[in-house]
Amino acid sequence: QVRLVETGGGLVQTGGSLRLSCIGSGLRFDEYAMGWFRQAPGKEREVVSCINCNAPGSTYTADSVKGRFTISSDNAKNTLFLQMDNLRPEDTAMYYCAARQLTYYNELIGTEASRYNVWGQGTQVSVSS
Predict the structure, then answer these.
(1) What does the pLDDT look like over 33-78, one tens digit per residue?
(2) In 3D, which of 87, 88, 71, 86 has the Cα closest to residue 37?
(3) How many helices (H) and strands (E) does the chain have?
(4) d(CA 127, CA 33)
(5) Diameter over CA atoms, the chain
(6) Through-space distance between the first and last CA atoms of the chain, rounded to whole angstroms
(7) What is residue 35's predicted lDDT score, i.e. its pLDDT?
(8) 73 HSE (CA, 13 A, CB side)
(9) Which pLDDT belongs to residue 57?
(10) What is the CA radius of gyration of the chain?
(11) CB atoms near residue 68 (< 10 Å)
(12) Which DSSP state fits 91?
């Protein structure tokens, strides 16, 4: 059974940093598209950043966080990271790790949340002004 567990959320002040981790079990990261999504109250779930989602080995980062957030992975440890720097109040949301198995090598899963079928429980990130 594939399982994802996120850790690392918390409350920080504007300009602060957090590092989210997502530990996976029952999967090999190099066989999956992996992504970080977030959902604020009253808003739709949106992609933050993803790996293997638009091309094998490539990353995608949303314009709203580009230059502040960095996605990375340690495939040997089945761990996905999201380094978040220069946090802003508008980054406040529940952050989710998600995965979707690639059925062939260069399958394009993309950035829509509906394309991902394995989700963690989420970790709350709150940024105070």
Answers:
(1) 999 999 999 999 999 999 999 888 889 999 999 999 999 999 999 9
(2) 71
(3) 0, 11
(4) 28
(5) 45
(6) 40
(7) 97
(8) 26
(9) 81
(10) 14
(11) 15
(12) G
